[in-house]
Structure formats: structure tokens, C-alpha cells
Input
Amino acid sequence: MHNRDDGLVSAIIIFVLVVVFGGVLAVSRSIGASFASVLATATGLFIIASVLGVAWYFFKKFGLSFFAAFFAFGWPATWPVLTCIANGGNDPASSFRPWHEDSFINSAWMTWGVEFIFVALLVLAVIHQYRRHRYYW
Output
């Protein structure tokens, strides 16, 4: 047995990282947001999806609830991208906007309204799963 490293694993990791960063850059340019906000959102969505995926692995009966939970927990992770788009592609912490009006995409009606809809769908999914898998003694 030889413990040699021919560099294949590190080459694959570098290739995957370049593809991921290239994809994030393409998405950020296509929607008019900064690279940093899209990368932070993609990282948050990946973490949320990973945690819900592990939970779904152990509780396969509640797949619909985990699917709805991804949207309910993932939507607030996209709010920095919405703010960045509303600021004209600049990060909200580093840009100065002299006007006092927000665009609809960054308004509380949009962010909290959609969050309310996603949470209501999560509640409906949990109720559906509860009624579907209720056991009588």
C-alpha cells in the first residue's frame, strides 16, 4: 500500500469550486445583483437544503413538510439579493441612496407577504402529513 497523492482529488475540488463560482457569477450578472450577495445567499440556501436533506433522510414520511420548510426558511436568505437588486446592483451596506422610496421588490409587502404565504403552506403541509399519518389506538 502506498500513500501517494497524485493531485487528482485536489484538481477535482478546484474544478468544482471554479464551476460553482462561475455559476454564481453568471447568476449575479443576469439578475443584476452583486457577486457577494448572491454567494452569501447560495451558501445559506445550501446549508438550509443540507440540514433539511439530513432531516428528510431520517423522517421520509414528512417529505412534503420538508419541501415546504425549504421555501419558508430559504426565502429570508434571499432578501439580501432583493435589497442588492433594489440598490442597482450595489451592496446595501456600501451604497448610498439619496431617495427615500423603496422599490416593490425590496418592500416589506413583498418580503413579508411572500414569507407569510410560505409559512402558511408549511403549516398546511404539516397538517396534511399529520392527518395522513395519524394513528388511532
Q: What stands out?
A: The chain has a mean pLDDT of 81.
